[in-house]
Write a structure and sequence with these properties.
The chain contains twelve helices and 37 strands. It is of the alpha+beta class. Among the domains are: 127 residues, no CATH class; 120 residues, no CATH class. The strands form seven sheets. Strands 8-9-10-11-19-16-15-13-14-32 form a ten-stranded antiparallel beta sheet, with helices on one face. The chain has a seven-stranded parallel beta sheet with strand order 31-30-29-24-23-20-33. A five-stranded antiparallel beta sheet has the order 1-2-3-4-5, with no helix packed on it. α5 packs parallel to α6 and α8 runs parallel beside α9.
Amino acid sequence: MNQQYRPLAVIAFACLLSSALVAEELPRLPREQWGAPLVTVSHASGKWVIQGRKNQVTLDESNLALAVKTETVTWTLGPSSADDLLVRSQGEEFNLRLSAAGKIDIGPYDTGAKTGVKIRLERFRREGKPELDLAICLTLCLEGKAEDLVCEAVAIERETTVRGLDWPKPVDAKGVNYTALNHVRGNLLPGDWPKEYHPYRNVPSGQESLMASDKSVIQSNLIECWSMSWWGFQKGNSALVLIVETPDDAGYTFSHPQGGPTVIGPRWLASLGRLAYPRSVRMCFLPKGSYVTMAKRYRRHVMDTGQFVSLKEKIAREPRVAQLVGASHIRQHALRNYKPGAKRFDTKNPERNYNLVTFDELAQRLRELKAKGIERAYVTLAGWPYMGYDRQHPDVLPPSPAAGGWAGLKRWVETCEELGYLYNLHDQYRDYYIDAPSYDPQFATQEEEAASSPTAFPGTRFGGWKEGLIPFMDYWDGGKMAYLNMRFALAHLVKNYEAMFDQGIRMQGSYLDVFGYVPPTEDFNPEHPLTRTESMKYQAECFRWVRNNLGIVGTEAGADWVVPYVDYSSDARAGGCIPAPLYTLVYHDAVMTPEGGSGDHLRCLLNGGFPTVGRDTSNLALVREIQKLHQRVALLEMTNHEFLSANYRKERSTFADGTTVTIDRDAGTSEIAVPNR
């Protein structure tokens, strides 16, 4: 061969050899070698069976009922019912049964990470009406080594839209000992609880009349019915946890008549009038479990998804947060000034409408507390705006002239700094008062239709109405108000605090009222539509701005979507059955709360809360005891909780370092045991 062609021949041979190696077929690996679930799907006699190593799911194709046989118990979910779907078509809303679809296709469904069945439902028809242009796709899959059952739903919507979907159906309550409910800080509802029960219809004494006209609905992130996105069931020694993986537009169906049973199941709410995107709930089966293990399963979920941000992480990004540990919280109030003509304005007792404590008087009270031994505190000032508490939001400046104006507020800040106290303002950017200087109805949230009853909370509780598409209410100090579209909240917040900077006043944080208590509000205004998800996004921007420009971030009550952003929240009272610290078992080392504060010192000690200090200073020894415990456990996980008596009046909590707190409500005593290290 000619020498000049020899290198080319060598290269060609190498290429052929390489191609042969690439083309060689490797054997197809069995599922277990590439990580797929060891789950099979079969069909016989009208039943679809999803068979895992631990759990077996059976779907009845005739009525879509479900049964899940685990290693220890069987859980059943009810069949399709007449109110599965709420749909809208041709201007009318009506219910449909999922199993009444004219065409139902069921078949195996395998993503490679989860295995089960897909159910596609089409050709729905309302009696005497044309076929609807709507399809529903449901999937049921076992996922992971634990074989969680993941249930997903999506609607293919055209002219016909889905306004609500109740699926999967509620768990059969037969044999359920109690249901773990995550409203306020957590409650256990025995299956045979003798009284009728409802998650949010548990109001403080003296406000019972509100319930008669309350039109509120159960929805995510309304603290009274949803502080966390899970609920669970105890059956014998086994437990079932349902984790709502798409909580932004969610709720649940609920019923507990006198004597039970408790019936609860997921409800998917529309987003701007449509189901719009896939919805998912995860069922976790615990062969041996309790309300504690349920809470810990959810804790793992929020840690995996990034929703859990520990206080240690928050201290790393804002070191001032560390100063909250072991500090007493003091709330001061400058001006109460009910608006004449508003619902709260008392014409018979006009002295109740106005109360003023100047900034200088409040500063003197702080000096007195320091002299009495309150060395470390975080002070929140309310009632500081121009017209007083809950007046003219979001345009709250200048500070109340009657209380001392800019100069008086600055002296109050200087006093806090002199005493070594942290300080912030109670502030608000949701309520949109019609007498605010910047009020313009185009920035108020609008509902979809003028004719329907208003749906915005809390007007649904306190008596709201609509003018055109805009919902209003009149219950707070400032009178008639709408709800600000959250797209505009941050700009108002920045406007107000930058004006303070110009006056030489820089707060060390902000308590943004209501964000952690009320559900996010939609806006149907086509010029600036807003979903619930977007509403929370813009509220989160407010929290971030406060952290980056002021320091410490607080909010009301603390529905858990706010956990990544806030350092502390106000308290949320117990429900009306058996209070259990479910929220604290998940988030104790992520958010500081008073847990009853000095007003319910036993709960505060049990749950490792921070102390609160009011005008009454007779209990300062107790405050110091709470401070000492908080200093020890604030950054620690609550690892366990136990009821030690049949009447649930004696309890014990355990923290990650081994510290235990035992309380006895009948005796009014507490005992703190610290491990020897």
